[in-house]
Every structure is written in C-alpha cells, then in structure tokens.
Amino acid sequence: MADRITQASNQHSGEAVAADASLVGKWEKWPGPSSRRPSLAVLHAMAAAFGCRLPDLLDLEDRRCLPGADLRAVNSLAARREPAAAPPAPHPPARAAEPPGSELVRLAADESATWAQWAEASNVGDIALEQLTAQMRHLAADYLTSDPVALFIHTRALRDRVFALLEGHQYPRQTTDLYAAAGYLCGLLAWMSSDLGQLRDADTQGRTAWLCAELAGHNDLRAWVLSTRSKVAFWDGRREEAINFARRGAAYRTSGTVGVLLACQEADAWSGLGAHDEALAALTRAEDARASVCGEDEVGGIFACQPARQENYAAAVQLRVGQPADALRSADTALSLLSVQPVRAYGTEAQIHISQAAAHLATGEAEGAFQALAPVLALPPDQRLAPVARRLHDLSNGIGRPHNAGSAAVGLRAAIEEFCVDSAPRHLALSPGQGTA
Predict the structure, then answer these.
(1) Are 190 and 153 in contact (CB under 8 A)?
(2) pTM greater than 0.85
C-alpha cells in the first residue's frame, strides 16, 4: 500500500509523498490515538492509489477533525462530483507478456528510475541535522546553569521533532544520525527527570535512550546512556545496578570523558555499599581514565566530566569511606577548578559545598559547616535539585550526634529543612500537570 501511494504521488503534479508502512498505519488510525493526520497531498495520493474520489476516503469523524482549510478543500471536491481517479498500475506493473527487445530494456530502466526517485527523497537534509545537533548541544550546556523545568520543556519539544523525522524517509546515514540525536535527547530527559525526583520516569527515558543508541550503533552514546542509567539507579537506592551499568559503560571503546565519569559513578556506588577498597580502586581508575582521554566529548555540557566534577565525586566517596581530611582537600580543589571554568554548574558546585560542610561536621566544626553551606542554602528554589536535597537531608541526619551539638548545629538543621521543603522536586509535585513526558 505504501508503494502504491508513493507511486501515485509521483505520477501526479503537486507535493510528493514518501510513504512507508509505519506512516500508512498511522494514517489509517487517524483520528485515533497514536495516529498522524494525513495531509491533502497524502489524501490525493491515496485516492489515486485506490481509484476513488478523495471525499470517499473520509467519514464523519474524519471530517470533524480536519482543519478548516482542508475541510473546505474536501467539500469543494465533493461538490464537483468529478469521476474517480483511475488506479495506478501495480508496482511492479502486472504484464500479460514481456515487451520485446529495446522496449523491455527501456521499461526496466523506467522502473529503476521510479524507484530511485523514491529512494532519493529525504525529509531531512544535512543542514537540518547540523542544526538539530547544535540545539542539542546548547540544551546540554544550558542545563548546567538554567531552570531545569524550562529546559525540560525545550528538550522534550526537540525530541518530538526528531521522533517525527524518524517516522519519515531519509538516507540511512541520516537515520543513524537521527537515532543518535534521539538517544542523547532521551538521555538528557532521563538526567533531568532524575534531578527533578522522578526516578521511574527517568528509567523509562533511559531505556528508550538505550534503544536509540543500539539502533545508531554509537559507542559513545551507549556509554553516556549507561552513565545516565547508573546515576538513576544510584539515587533510587539500587547500588548494585548502578555499579553494573557503570562497568558496562566502561567496557566500550570511547573518546571524551565518559570513562572518567563512569569510574567515578562506580566508586560512588561502592562507597554507598560500604565497600571501601573497591570505591578507592574505582577512584584510581577514574584518574587513569582521565590520563587516557583521547578526544572531545561529542555533546558536552551535562554529557562531559570536567576535572571539577571528578573531584566532586572523589570528595563524596572519601567522606563515605571515613577520610574527611581527604574529602575537604578534594572539595577545595574542585572549587578552585570550577572557578576557572567558563561555565559553573550550580548543581555540581552545590554538592561540592555540601561535601565541605560534611567534612567540617565530621571533625566537629559546625560553624565551618554553616559557612560552607551558605551558597547552597541561597540557591533559588528552581535550582534545588533532588540530588542536592538528598545530600543535604543525609547531612542533616548526622547533625544530631553528640559532637555536633550546639546552637550552630541546630540552626543548620533548621535551614536545611527549610531548603528541602522549598525544592524543585517539591514544586514539581505540587504544580498542576503540564503534559510533560
């Protein structure tokens, strides 16, 4: 049916239609769920393919759902009562007998030319793909410094554009590029969903991102998706899964800094399980991965592991394995590195300050902890992401210990509780639905 519709479109003047089985299925379902509305050009091609008049294709519900301009055009055709279009010859044409000699050769050439016309058509060009990639990189970079909910909406809209293009027809290399873009965008949505406290939705986005990475055959994307899934599993309390995702990602031959982040995430998960030796060994592998970085990160932004981000992970791990002095040095180093970066990621910076505060508390310095947390507590509510709130909550739970007693500790605990009540995940949970997915 798709071939007949495409062939009919090519035999008539007007907009060309490149149909495939998926699109035909969506046109048939319209106006129901998971459908796509056929354009007038598609309806004309269908009418020609089926040998009927265009108005005969539409029932009452179809007409109710048509845009006003299209409905007026259909009603105009219905008023004319022109004869039905003759159906095109099947493809390949049914023949009672093969034509002789040169006519047979010419017919075969015409058939190949007709197919080539369809194969050459694409619903996306190289410039459009370049623009999509640029927008994707901007979103990944802007997420480090901007309102996560607003960025989520923009990312979702770009993902939908890529999905729509994949439902059409393009060159195989363009299809591969589109699958890679879809994978990175779903990975970005997974990261954002996790930061907004929606871990189940983050898992769903991660699975779709993995499918796209597999369809694209893209090792760097595979590794970044597994890094994202490791992050989601860690904050969901599934530490063993987080380790497995990180190790699977590290097994791919990649360029850029994803190997550094994967080793840091493995160390984070091991430290959460109380496996001190394994956690410190993973931090050493992160250093080795940094030394062996051989290329640039394809996307950057949240899909990059700058040295400050690595030191942030190191500080958190060192705290859990009982090395507060080392953690304080790592946190100080991280802040120094962050100060010279062109973009300061507020989420990373907040976690570094939390590690500083935890190190001070571990040595009974509540006043130092309060000073370290001052920049975190001053964050606007829309930047108070779930990992930051979780780490502050964990910090608050340790304040009640005897060596942390005192007015400064009590004030710090109250400030943390106020921070967590007015956080981005809580605002999202209390806000009316905006149809995000």
Answers:
(1) no
(2) no
User: What total number of domains does the chain contain?
Assistant: 3
Angstrom distance (rounded) from CA 144 to CA 158: 18
Domain end, chosen from 305, 331, 351, is at 305
C-alpha torsion sign, points 172, 259, 331, 415 = positive
- Contact call for residues 124 and 174 (beta carbons, < 8 A): yes
pLDDT (tens digit per residue) in 159-176: 999 999 999 889 999 999
Q: What is the mean pLDDT of each run of 10 residues along the chain (437 residues)?
A: 83 74 86 84 86 87 84 76 53 56 79 80 89 95 92 95 92 95 97 94 97 97 98 97 98 94 98 96 97 93 96 96 95 93 89 93 83 91 90 81 57 81 72 52
**Is residue 97 included in any domain, yes or no?**
no
**Phi, psi for 301 (deg, rounded to 5):** 65, -125
Which of 305, 322, 355 terminates a domain? The answer is 305
3-state DSSP assignment of residue 300:
strand
Number of other CB atoms surrounding residue 314 within 10 Å:
26
Rounded Cα distance between 391 and 259, Å, is 24
> Contact 411/220 with Cβ under 8 angstroms?
no
436: CB partners within 8 A, 6+ apart = 152, 153, 156
What span, in angstroms and rounded, lies between the C-alpha atoms of 46 and 57?
A: 8
Range of the domain at 255: 125-305
Token digits of residue 329 = 């040095």
Q: Is residue 339 part of a domain?
A: yes
CA distance 276 to 173: 46
The answer to whether the CB of 353 falls within 8 A of the CB of 373 is yes
CB-based contact 297:304 (threshold 8 Å)? yes
Give the list of residues 6+ apart from residue 86 with CB closer than 8 angstroms, or none.
Answer: 51
Q: Which two tokens stand for residue 32?
A: 């129901």
